[in-house]
Amino acid sequence: MESDLDQKLKSVTSLLDSAVLIFWDFDGVVKDSLDIKRLAFENLFLPFGPEIASRVRIHHERNGGISRFEKIPLYLKWAGQPTSPLQVNEFCDRFAKAVQQGVIDAPWVPGVRDYLLGNFTEQYFVLVTATPQEEIEQILDALGISHCFREVYGAPTKKAIAMAAVLDRQKCPPFSSLMIGDAETDRQAALLNLVPFLLRRTPLNLPLQNFYSGPMFDDLNDE
Predict the structure, then answer these.
(1) What is the mean pLDDT of residues 61-88?
(2) SS3 readout for the chain
(3) I need a labelling partner for 85 at 20 to 30 A (CA). Which of 25, 79, 108, 215 fits?
(4) What is the pLDDT of residue 14?
(5) Rounded CA gap, 138 and 3, in Å?
(6) Whose CA is closest to 130, among 175, 161, 86, 166?
(7) pLDDT of residue 177
(8) Judging by DSSP bridges, how do beta strands 21-24 and 197-200 pair with one another?
(9) Which candidate, 197, 152, 154, places its Cα nearest to that of 174?
(10) pLDDT of the residue at 108
């Protein structure tokens, strides 16, 4: 008799194998880079006091997949700072400088690089991320995996909007696609488009793991 673990592994493998089109999130799904961004947000607002920095960290951890362009104005408001476009852009630039090389150097989610390189000619891979468009393109070039993705969507494009546009343009039924993500925003984007969702488990998404009953994985080496 198969164990629950064996059944779950088969479910994940079946989802991957049957998908004609796969949407990929990036941080926490392709690269284990969540801690880098968490620390960068915390350090960016530490000059405004440990309470503000802690509040920023907690909010960021609970709201993965949301763009810095939405988070930073909120955090500046909490810190009692101006939220003018000039100020927001300055903080976004400081954040980008703090994280970009760290993301490039971060560990790969085990098995993902091999899966991308081994299957990009057979399946249609699309990257949808909250990282700004220009920045994610630079990161993909540095990692040598730009060619794996037929399309790349970063901020300010919303994930759900990008997914809907791709499905329509490719004439792909939602049930023939798959969204791989690690945050509630990823699950919601998939839900809005009727796309099956595969959750990558991380230490930061324990609340999501507790109520999500669908397929999950830790790394693709197990699949």
Answers:
(1) 93
(2) CCCHHHHHHHHHHHHHHHCCEEEECCECCCECCHHHHHHHHHHHHHHHCHHHHHHHHHHHHHCCCCCHHHHHHHHHHHCCCCCCHHHHHHHHHHHHHHHHHHHHHCCECCCHHHHHHHHCCCCEEEEEEEEEHHHHHHHHHHHCCHHHCCEEEEECCCHHHHHHHHHHHHCCCHHHEEEEECCHHHHHHHHHCCCCEEEECCHHHHHHHHHCCCCEECCHHHC
(3) 25
(4) 84
(5) 43
(6) 161
(7) 98
(8) unpaired
(9) 197
(10) 97
- Residues 37, 40, 42: CA angle, nearest 5 degrees: 110
- Which residue has 């990161």 as its token pair? 139
pLDDT at 66: 86
Asked whether the beta carbons of 91 and 80 are under 8 A apart, the reply is no
Angstrom distances, CA of residue 95 to CA of 14, 28, 46, 140, 217: 39, 18, 13, 18, 30
Residue where the block lists tokens 């198969």: 2
Is residue 33 within 8 Å of residue 101, measured between CB atoms? no
Give pLDDT, residue 222.
54
The whole-angstrom separation of Cα 66 and Cα 48 is 22
